[in-house]
Write a structure and sequence with these properties.
By secondary structure, this protein is an alpha/beta fold. The protein has 23 helices and 27 strands. Helix content is 31%, strand content 18%. The chain has a six-stranded mixed beta sheet with strand order 11-16-15-14-12-13, sandwiched between helices. Helix 8 runs parallel beside helix 10. It binds 1-deoxynojirimycin. 1-deoxynojirimycin binds next to loops.
Length: 746
């Protein structure tokens, strides 16, 4: 009898197993049905296992709290996802172990594919400077193609945190300070990563992070608290997240910070009320690395069990690396603190994504060594990377049209600690590969290749990035004296920005600005390339250098992209996605500020006004700023009407003419100001932009539209509404160079 019963049990289990592992293509069962049938077979421990994510066997991208026998736990179905398992072979091996578990549920492999995998693209902040959404989407597409071929299912990107604080090292990972631009970039990246949708072999699941307001860490100090009104949160910080959700982002990651005293990882308002209920998000939420357990340090949870409970109740489905879920959730359920149906809810969301990704049909479809090899050195990908890299460069200054270099230049001196740097070009959050020195095009190589043999190229390092030693200045000055023109490559090192890389001093590190002074004193024309992961402060250089290109970190093709711009094969078109301060004392400084009751009349006005007595209010370089080798004249905006009502369109015509001596691209930006609001409104807010390529002498008329919907904001009661009254609309090529017209909303 006993044997007979267990025989029936085994038969039933095999039947259900067959149901959920049935290929999706058979269309007999919906994914929901397959998820449900699997869920019915799972023990409570197995369910909790799905909510547990560990870092791989070698690499770690955060502090490992405690070792675990990961292989053993994999075999027991105690791990639902792993991050940092790199390459097709390793993901295959880990998947094989996971499939030894009772229910053979495949693992989901996550990885920080932030700006490329094998081919490294410009850092995200740099790409945002391109203002080119197509190029940004393509960059994410290539990253997904390469990473998915190496076994990755899920990228922890895009980072869509708005930030107004360049001290915060993670500004390099986002799209800068503006909610409108940030939202469009978020959508482009989600679309790029997710490609043709889950289930296609080269689509990665994307992850909107860090939900929410991580970029507003007090003092720009990473992981610090955030204290902000809900109006500010909604009007500025949440918009790119909402845009990512609307674009179908698969997952969201909680932020490390607390928001007004409640850690984001357990923040019901953010994770349940907004994300699930209002925004109708259907994916799952993963914590950040250890952020569940860190609620003990925050002083929000008494112990790990308390933290696990708060996070799950708050709306966090998967625990990355804190181990609080795996260690405590079962007891929390058995003791009645958490209902099993709540666990089911999270597990359902996680399993759903595994089904959608096709992992139950073929758990190995992504870890395919053959496909990985094909993507390994893809020339087309490098071309795409070079193209966006040159579009990301911002020309900040170009006295007497020193750039592009003229054909008659015979000797170029290349000076600075980053001229021959290799790995630095990739910036933070990038993979280093053993053959990097052969693959990354250094700035030296890029210029060398393009300059041709008839140009004599001299080199001196001059100094290190951060060291106080100036003994190399002499050699630098000597070679500068022999040259027609000097190109200096200076800046931060790549690991001075990124996670846990906040700086209180964002000047050029070490003695680099002194080196520029010494070289400048030779009287030779000096072009400065500034490599950095954030806006830096470099006033002396900005005042004196003859030309400045802000090159951020441009990735594998850095040298070629820089050479394209230096020699004029590409006319620079980048625009700053973040305001550059004059000094750290101005931070936060941003273009969409409120006017205050005492705005200064001008920069000299100190008569009881909102100003610094030792510094102008204006930044060093404004949001939206960037020069070209040609010049553009931009007409005043012409409006089709001066009054619109809801449902009507305001149409804004602007004519742009290329009045200079080179073909080039200009980015026309549209801003508006709501003159009187029930909540004070910004002096300007971006509401549109168009890029236009014009041959010299050519002109074009662009048409923008604004409707009542574009004028809405979250009011005192958090209603998203517009308010009738007077508005100004501005167009121009930088937030501080615009022409405006008045219109009314009735
Ligand atoms: C912590 C970072 O904040 C997050 O962005 C990243 O995805 C995880 N570590 C995993 O590396």
């Amino acid at each position: 009898m006993k044997n007979y019963n267990s025989g029936i049990a085994v038969f039933l289990m095999l039947l259900v197993l067959a149901l959920y592992t049935e290929p999706a293509s058979s269309q007999k069962l919906s994914i929901d049905q397959r998820v449900d049938s699997l869920l019915k077979l799972m023990t409570l421990e197995e369910k909790i296992g799905q909510m547990n994510q560990y870092s791989g066997f070698e690499e770690a991208t955060g502090p490992v709290t405690e070792e675990a026998d990961k292989l053993e736990q994999l075999r027991r179905g105690m791990i639902g996802s792993m991050l940092n398992v790199t390459g097709a072979t390793k993901t295959r091996q880990a998947q094989e172990v996971a499939l030894q578990s009772r229910l053979r549920i495949p693992l989901l492999f996550g990885q920080d594919i932030i700006h490329g995998y094998r081919t490294i693209f410009p850092i995200p902040l740099a790409e945002a400077a391109s203002w080119n959404l197509e190029a940004i989407e393509l960059s994410a597409r290539v990253a997904a193609t390469e990473a998915s071929a190496a076994g990755v299912h899920w990228t922890f990107a895009p980072m869509v945190d708005i930030s107004r604080d360049p001290r915060w090292g993670r500004v390099m990972e986002g799209a800068g300070e503006d909610p409108y631009l940030g939202s469009l970039v978020a959508v482009a990246r989600v679309n790029g990563f997710q490609g043709n949708g889950f289930g296609s072999p080269d689509a990665l699941m994307a992850c909107g992070k860090h939900f929410a307001a991580y970029g507003a860490a007090i003092g720009g100090r990473d992981y610090n608290s955030v204290d902000m009104s809900l109006q500010h949160l909604h009007n500025d910080y949440l918009k790119p997240f909402k845009a990512a959700v609307d674009a179908g982002v698969a997952t969201m990651m909680t932020a490390f910070n607390d928001i007004n005293g409640i850690p984001a990882t357990a923040n019901k308002y953010i994770l349940r009320h907004l994300l699930r209920d209002e925004w109708n998000f259907k994916g799952f939420v993963v914590s950040d690395w250890g952020s569940v357990g860190e609620m003990i340090n925050h002083g929000y949870s008494a112990d790990e069990a308390d933290a696990a409970k708060a996070a799950l109740l708050g709306g966090c489905d998967m625990d990355m690396e804190s181990r609080c879920y795996i260690k405590n959730m079962k007891n929390l359920v058995l003791s009645g603190h958490i209902s099993e149906s709540m666990i089911d809810e999270s597990v359902r969301l996680i399993l759903r994504k595994k089904f959608e990704m096709g992992l139950f049909d073929d758990p190995y479809r992504f870890c395919n060594e053959e496909r990985e090899k094909q993507q390994w050195d893809n020339k087309e990908h490098r071309e795409i990377a070079r193209n966006i890299a040159r579009k990301s460069i911002v020309l900040l200054k170009n006295d007497k049209s020193l750039l592009p270099l003229k054909e008659n230049v015979k000797t170029i001196a290349m000076i600075g600690p980053l001229v021959k740097a290799v790995g630095e070009n990739n910036g933070f959050w990038s993979y280093s590969w053993p053959d990097d020195s052969a693959r990354i095009v250094t700035q030296w190589q890029g210029i060398r290749n393009r300059a041709g043999e008839h140009v004599n190229l001299l080199y001196a390092k001059g100094c290190e990035i951060s060291e106080p030693d100036s003994s190399g200045f002499k050699e630098a000055v000597e070679i500068a004296m022999k040259a027609d023109v000097v190109i200096m490559s200076i800046g931060e090192s790549a690991n001075m920005s990124g996670e846990a890389k906040s700086r209180s001093n964002i000047q050029l590190p070490g003695v680099q600005e002194e080196l520029i002074k010494a070289v400048y004193a030779t009287g030779k024309p000096v072009i400065v390339l500034i490599n950095a992961g954030r806006p830096l402060v470099f006033n002396w250089t900005a005042d004196h250098a003859h030309a400045i290109l802000y090159t951020w970190w441009l990735g594998t093709e850095a040298g070629n992209a820089i050479a394209d711009v230096v020699f004029g094969d590409y006319n620079p078109s980048g625009k700053l996605p973040m305001t550059f301060p004059r000094s750290e004392g101005q931070i936060p400084v941003y273009y969409n500020y409120f006017n205050t009751g005492r705005p200064p009349k001008d920069e000299n006005d100190l008569n009881y006004v909102s100003a610094y007595i030792d510094l102008p209010n204006s930044p060093r370089f404004p949001f939206g700023y960037g020069l070209s080798y040609t010049s553009f004249s931009i007409s005043e905006p012409e409006l089709n009407t001066t009054t619109i009502t809801a449902g009507e369109e305001l149409s804004i015509r602007v004519t742009v003419a290329n009045t200079g001596n080179a073909d080039g691209t200009e980015t026309i930006q549209l801003y508006f100001r709501d003159k009187v609001g029930s909540l004070v409104r910004p002096v300007k807010q971006l509401a549109g932009f168009q890029q236009v390529f014009l041959k010299k002498g050519e002109s074009r008329t662009l048409i923008f539209t604004l409707t009542e919907k574009d004028l809405r904001f979250y009011n005192e009661n958090l209603e998203f509404k517009s308010e009738p009254g007077e508005f100004e609309v501005f167009t121009g090529n930088s937030s501080d160079n615009v022409k405006g017209k008045t219109f009314y909303l009735k």
